[in-house]
Amino acid sequence: xxxxxxxxxxxxxxxxxxxxxxxxxxxxxxxxxxxxxxxxxxxxxxxxxxxxxx
Length: 54
Description:
globular, 2 helices, mainly alpha
């Protein structure tokens, strides 16, 4: 996982918690998975949360 940088303590704390929420991230992936096909570009806060599921 990339180091989280930023000037918003609350935003950084939230991203850190979400990055470590494996069950939540699995649920999010399973929710969007049926709608994903072909090449997928993950754009976000440098966490690559779904990268391990691809």
